[in-house]
Specification:
Helix content: 40-55%
CATH class of the largest domain: Mainly Alpha
Distance between the termini: 67 Å
Order of helices and strands: HHHHH
Number of strands: 0
Strand content: under 5%
Length: about 120
């Protein structure tokens, strides 16, 4: 008789774990360029750049230029991507980390950040 309650308990635990992992997978949303740019473990753009007009960007940083009018500053979007991928190529003395060259961000994450920043 002891085996049945033990098996029932084991089945309940496995069922709970499966249910939890299914809900966790459903709740996890794909990161946007803004999510990556604002994440202090990834892009962390707000550590150096201000983004005027963005309510999530409450930090006023002044190490790098403000991220505004990016289409005017980078009419060629590929140059903005190159800047984010490795800013040291254009300026060896820059304080901006080479996000692609040092694999801080993946190629897909860089593309998302570029799309976000280019829209500012």
């Amino acid at each position: 008789m002891r085996k049945a309650p033990a098996m029932l308990l084991a089945a309940s635990i496995v069922g709970a774990l499966l249910t939890t992992s299914v809900f966790a997978a459903e709740e996890k949303k794909e990161e946007t360029g803004q999510d990556i740019a604002f994440n202090n473990r990834k892009g962390n753009c707000l550590a150096c750049h201000s983004i005027p007009g963005d309510p999530k960007a409450v930090t006023i940083a002044n190490i790098g230029p403000p991220l505004i009018a990016m289409k005017a500053r980078f009419p060629d979007k590929s140059k903005l991507r190159a800047q984010i991928w490795d800013a040291t190529a254009a300026n060896p003395y820059t304080s901006m980390p080479p996000f692609g060259k040092h694999k801080i961000l993946s190629e897909q994450e860089i593309d998302k950040v570029v799309d976000y920043v280019y829209g500012l």
